[in-house]
């Protein structure tokens, strides 16, 4: 079966503040695909429950139904095709349906600065929250899924977002997708 861009499933992962959602939104717009951000739904769920992201992460560590709900939502949308999905673990969880699995990375300093700007918090608070959350998530994904969310060896593409503007990252991903499509013809 020939893959067309309009049916493509692109999964973008990486740590908090790496640019996952920014890149995914721009990519979806450029390719006229749908976009789903697992992190957005996680933050929304925390807000609805009156919890911080860290508090919900701690609860999710004990209650796998939270991750299972978000993961099943992402998988169902991916199966429909024509979508860019971003989430910390999306490329691992969607490995059987994603046509392109991308990791976006950046140094902790850059990620903390981006998160502080996004969340309108001071940098010290962001560093503390992010380190706590990432440790919880690392343990959670290892325990529930047997994956190391810092190991990108099975990905199609790993891009350091410090080195490129968001639009340039999108161009790199588009080129990789075009090459993937060419190889399915």
From TrEMBL:
Q: Which residues bind ATP?
A: 14-22
Tell me where on the tree of life, at the top rank, the source sits: Archaea
Per the record, its GO cellular-component terms are: cytoplasm
Q: Which Gene3D superfamilies match?
A: P-loop containing nucleotide triphosphate hydrolases
CDD domains assigned to the protein according to its UniProt record, in alphabetical order: CMPK
Entry's localization field: Cytoplasm
Q: What is its main location?
A: cytoplasm
User: GO biological process annotations for this chain's record?
Assistant: pyrimidine nucleotide metabolic process
Which protein, by its recorded name, is this? Answer: Cytidylate kinase
Q: What organism is the protein native to?
A: Ignisphaera aggregans
Lineage of the source organism? Archaea, Thermoproteota, Thermoprotei, Desulfurococcales, Desulfurococcaceae
């Amino acid at each position: 079966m020939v893959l067309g861009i309009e049916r493509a499933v692109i999964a973008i992962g990486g740590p908090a503040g790496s640019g996952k959602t920014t890149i995914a939104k721009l990519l979806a717009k450029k390719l006229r695909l749908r976009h789903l951000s697992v992190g957005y739904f996680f933050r929304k769920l925390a807000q609805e429950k009156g919890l911080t992201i860290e508090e919900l992460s701690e609860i999710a560590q004990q209650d796998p139904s939270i991750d299972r709900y978000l993961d099943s939502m992402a998988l169902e949308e991916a199966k429909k095709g024509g979508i860019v999905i971003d989430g910390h673990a999306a490329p691992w969880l969607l490995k059987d349906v994603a046509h392109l699995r991308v990791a976006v990375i950046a140094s902790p300093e850059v990620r903390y600065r981006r998160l502080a700007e996004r969340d309108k918090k001071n940098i010290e608070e962001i560093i503390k929250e992010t380190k706590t959350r990432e440790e919880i998530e690392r343990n959670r994904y290892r325990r529930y899924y047997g994956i190391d969310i810092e190991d990108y060896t099975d990905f199609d593409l790993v891009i350091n977002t410090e080195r490129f503007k968001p639009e340039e990252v999108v161009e790199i991903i588009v080129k990789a997708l075009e090459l993937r499509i060419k190889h399915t013809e």
